[in-house]
Specification:
Length: about 120
């Protein structure tokens, strides 16, 4: 079917100057735009800005993880196993992704407890 894609699209608006900087980095990397953006989003440094909304969001994600792990534990303890292999894999991936994101965020915020005035590698943090 034309016009349909298997995976969702991510888009955002940037200034002309930001675009020039990004385009230069893409050319220098030798990667395709898609690969550059994916790798940049997954592996790049993050600057943590402490906001109540961020903490609330993380707590909500941790609550979901707790519920999932509790459900899985209960099913392991029962003789009947309701979750499918795919369900367990989905749950595992969801928890793993969130744990990686939290570790990434904490790594970006470690300057807060390492007695540094501001985050390294950034001008505003």
């Amino acid at each position: 079917m034309s016009g349909t894609h298997k995976y969702p699209t991510i888009s955002f608006r940037i200034s002309p100057r930001e675009r020039e900087e990004i385009e230069a980095k893409i050319i220098a990397s030798g990667l395709s735009k898609k690969d550059y953006f994916v790798r940049s989003c997954i592996y790049n440094h993050v600057c943590v800005v402490g906001k109540k909304e961020l903490i609330v969001q993380l707590v909500e994600e941790l609550k979901v993880m707790q519920t999932n792990i509790k459900e899985l534990t209960e099913q392991f303890e029962q003789t009947e196993f309701i979750l499918t292999v795919e369900g367990i894999e989905d749950m595992r991936n969801d928890c793993l992704d969130m744990l990686k994101a939290i570790l990434w965020m904490l790594d970006g915020a470690k300057y807060l407890w390492q007695n540094e005035e501001k985050s390294p590698n950034s001008g505003n943090c």
